[in-house]
Give the backbone structure.
Amino acid sequence: MKGMTLIVKCISQLMAPSIFLLGVYVVLHGHLTPGGGFAGGVLIAGSFVLLILAFGSDEVRSQILNWNATAFESVGLFVFWFLAFWGLIRGTYYFTNVITKVNPGLPYHLFSAGIIPLCNLAIGIEVAAALFSIFICLAILKVGDRI
Amino acid sequence: MLTILILLLVLMILGAIVALESKDLLSGVISLGICGFALTIVFLLVQAPDLAIVQIIVETLTLVILIAAILKTTHEDTTEAFGLRKLLVWGLGLVSIAVFLAVSIHVFSHLPKFGYPVLRIAQVYLDQGLPLTGAANIVAAIILDFRGYDTLGEATVLFTSVAGTVAVLRHIGRKRP
């Protein structure tokens, strides 16, 4: 698709990094403030979508297809599944919060709550890659492209 | 409060009907957005900020993706049913609406009063969430610790839907472009 005018390009250039940072913040503070992996992942995907819509995808199409968004999605889901499986490896139940049992951490601090921030991180990666690959499929992909 | 909720629900139903009936796909998608954003206000009114954040972000991004897809392909809704098929669609739709209404009236008459749940397990989550998991956000403590299975299922559903989308839309194996 074609890009938009200079005004849209300038504004989206300014906005996209802040949206990306807000997404990372929402993912990392998911166990302290409202939000979490899902909302933060969608924000991260939204910053990429904003840049591509503003600048057009004709010149960078092959690079975008080489980013392997679906591979990132698989990695995110696999990490989440492994965190769930960790409890079985340590000899307790499925989805046991094994880190909290050993080192609970201070409540209301960033490094607390055991595997919950790690799960949020995995879900954030998965959701961002999933929504971005849906965007690639619906709006960028042409006949003959491989993804 | 309750009147605002009912007004918003009526707005959502109207938006869904317009989205179904409009011949132009672009106006259909935009009126689907009415549905989602009204649902965001409903979540805010019943004090669920987590759900409201997720709903408004997902709604915006899906609207943008759908509009980009429509601008790339076509504006016209080309699906149409004739004759016996139309009759079948309408008849089955009306029958299922009637069954759903009858069952849901029966179910809703047995629910507890609005806003006053009698769920004992929820009180345990509220009391023990912070000491047991250490997460200050009680929603994160529930969806990733107490009810982690559900979230794993949701992530798997998202993964499966993306795999289906990629498999349908990637056009490998087509002879002629």
